[in-house]
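User: Run a structure prediction on this.
Assistant: Running it now.
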Amino acid sequence: MIAAFCIAPAAVVFAAFWLLPMAELAWLPSTKGAATYFAVLTEPRYLKSLVQTTVLSVAVTLVSLVVAAAVGLYLGRREFAGRRLLLSVLTLPLSFPGVIVGFFVILVGGRQGPFADLTDALAGQRITFAYGLTGLFLAYVYFSLPRAIASFTAVVERMDRELEEAARSLAAPRWAIVRDVWWPALQPTALAVGAILFATAMGAFGTAFTLASRYEVLPITIYNEFTNYANFALAASLSIALGVMTWAVLFVARRFGGAAAAGAAA
């Protein structure tokens, strides 16, 4: 009886704030016909938005993983004065909302930013990059790097140095050490962090809302559908497509990440 009273509040909150909204989200597209569920694949505009969002998210994920792995390997393997301060500075953007990150990009690459002033002085034309693909890409990478750097640094700090020393004593080349020592240790983290970065980039709204005036991504498309056009059924359909894609990536990363971790431990 006591357990039932303890579970009841959690069950009520779960039903009110997850189960009912999810049921409503799944039901809404059916009010406009079953074809609405597949609008993201059958309508060129929405398919283009999905493709642009996916390509951008994949590019941001790959670049962030490469840069963060390099930084994590450097910080995790060395001790020097100011190391903790440097790591704190590198991870500081974790505390910034997406809107502020977008504002930073506008300050640098917007119409009144120093980049526009420089191009005006050199070429007589004010060139901006804040409001299109370049601005979005830089903002997403800036937002993604801190969590990836923190994760890789923590993993590198726990790496077994004896394996690398043994490989060096056997005159193993650097590429062999990267392949046989570093990569097996970093692979589970790369998969897990990569999935999180991809999912975050796919669903990022604040940064996209600030910068995406020339490059439409799916969160902005969803926002326009239910805010500007009151097309709730289509907005729900696009939301389902976005959610299913990101969930699938996270699911695959968990499966392969667990297998990779087991293989590395063996």
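DSSP finds twelve helices and no strands in the chain.
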